[in-house]
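## retry 2 of 3
previous attempt timed out at serialization; input unchanged, resubmitting
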Amino acid sequence: AALEDTAFLEKSRAHNEATKNWFTTEVESMPGLSVTPSLGNFVLVHFKDADAAGNADAALKAEGVIVRRMGGYGLPDCLRISIGMTDEMEICAIALRRFAEAGSA
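## retry succeeded, writing output
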């Protein structure tokens, strides 16, 4: 039934695209961070090295933000951040900016 609810699917698709674009812009404005362009429901954030990515993961977890480490995929300097609700993404962006501006990225 959910797949047949085209209005909901379109609303979800639009939210994902708008939020992903906003979040990408936010991350790219943070010192030391970059993003791989994405067509999916996540953003791949690049750090200076694997240690910085691990430290960012720990810092985000300390603030209740769960992301995915990408070392197992050959990208040890990256974190995969899924697109969520707007308020969740704002919390994530604030926590990530705090980490990046501390010079740790």
